[in-house]
Amino acid sequence: MEVSGILAPSSVNAALLSKFQLGERLLVEVMNISGKGEGSIRVKGQSLNALLETSTQVGEKFWVKVGNLNEGGLLLIREPIPGKLKDSLSVPPQVQQVNERGLPNNQTIVALVKTFPTTTLEVFSALFGSMQGTPLNSELLTYLKKAIPQWSSLSGDNGKDELLKSLKRLGLNYEHRIHNMLKLDQPAKEIEKQSLLDTFKGVLLKAIHSQNNEDTNDSDNPLVQMLQKITGQQLWLKTGALDSAYLILHLPLLNQEQLIPAQIAIESSRKGSKMDEHHCRIAILVQTQELGEIGIDAFFNEKTFTCRVLSDDSLLPRLLEVAIPETKEKFIKLGFQLERVESGELRQNHEFLNFLHGSRRSGVDILR
């Protein structure tokens, strides 16, 4: 569990709020959990509505401290489990983030983990635009187009498989495959080696090493910037070392020869070594031609889920009314029932944007 809190809009009445003191230690019991990460808790003999961490389970009891009181708002911060996140308050935020991801405290890794969530996918389109007409650009562009998924392919029945294939073609499991390659016999090893060279990361590494008189560690080198983006993605594609799994995916999509940037963040309970798709939160931010940026914030609980669609375009609510019936039918085929769809303003939803940038909801936020 994280120790630092993320504030979300919340409120309780003044009379109840007066019963709490900043820093006070309390025992919380989770009574029930509904969609959108909401539920009810019992604390100080009172039953209260609250926003909960994704990994929280019904019946769970844990100690919290009152982390914030303001204008009827109350944040309860869950205490770390003994033996985990030791001395986390004394660790610099960027180092703590690396520790939470289960990565070594290496200067290069710290920098990549810190910068990746806030760097955009424009690095791809900007780089190609700056190298128009060069043979190097043509080869990289060809491999990138082969690697990234078509927008239309993700909406079909095989969308999940297409996404996984794309991640492999980009080379996001490049080093893992090298490790496994060492265990193969010579003929199989050569086949795998050639397959690695055909990934986008393999072609990018080859292009960087072929640049004469160029510093391969120069952060101003556009190819190095692209490699840093991919390497940072590899680090954030791991699910971390905390009780709940969390990952970020920045993925360019191809739509009519145009690169469309998409950002995805997923937090879930753990199901063995995998993420639990039936108890998770999925946040998506994608750039559209007609409505600009669209955010989708979905909470899955068993076979049902709720969804909030976020945009700064006033046309969104009317478009949703048209799209909801067909959307419900598609999710029924996937085994999920869409219970509720809401709309809201994107730029005012700071908690959603923070979640996309690597900050998870921590502790318990009390609702109205």
Could you walk me through the main structural features you see in this protein, from its secondary elements to its overall organization?
With about 375 residues, the chain is α+β, with helices and mostly antiparallel strands. Among the domains are: about 15-90, Beta Barrel (OB fold (Dihydrolipoamide Acetyltransferase, E2P)), CATH 2.40.50; about 105-235, no CATH class. The protein has twelve helices and twelve strands. It has helices at about 15, 95-100, 105-115, 120-130, 135-145, 160-170, 175-180, 185-195, 200-210, 220-235, 315-335, 350-355; strands spanning about 25-35, 40-45, 45-50, 60-70, 75-80, 245-255, 260-270, 275-290, 290-300, 305-310, 335-345, 365. A six-stranded antiparallel beta barrel has the order 1-2-3-12-5-4. A six-stranded mixed sheet has the order 6-7-8-9-10-11, sandwiched between helices.
